Amino acid sequence: MVNWHAVDMEVERGQRDFERRIEETGGEILERLKRAERCCKEAEETRRRDWEELKGRIMTAAEKHQFELDGIRRQTATMTAEYVNVIRSAREDIEQKSAERRAESREEFDELLAEVRAQREAFLRMLDRLPPA
Questions:
Q1: Does the predicted TM-score (pTM) go above 0.85?
Q2: For 21-38, how does the pLDDT look when each residue is reduced to its tens digit (9 = 90+)?
Q3: Per-domain residue ranges for the chain?
């Protein structure tokens, strides 16, 4: 017999697990993006210092502007790559969880199907025992 209360509880548990994973993943994503942004800023500062040491002077306004544009391009490329990695890992996680859930659902379906078959066979055996009308 199907226990619908248990099914409802299972659905609710699945929703809570999904929400928990979203919160955990969101925090992890923010941390990865902040780390990438920090690395970009540190790399830019290192590049600027190296350039000034190489040239032996402070940048002019035009050089500073060009340097900032280059930095924006580098940061955009780095952040885009990080976003792609985040999305890829999220997609892989979702696919893995979906595959696990499908396997669980298949097992539950097979159990329910076996139970329905057993009940049908029991019902047919009961019908066979009844005297003819």
A1: no
A2: 878 878 888 888 899 889
A3: 19-101
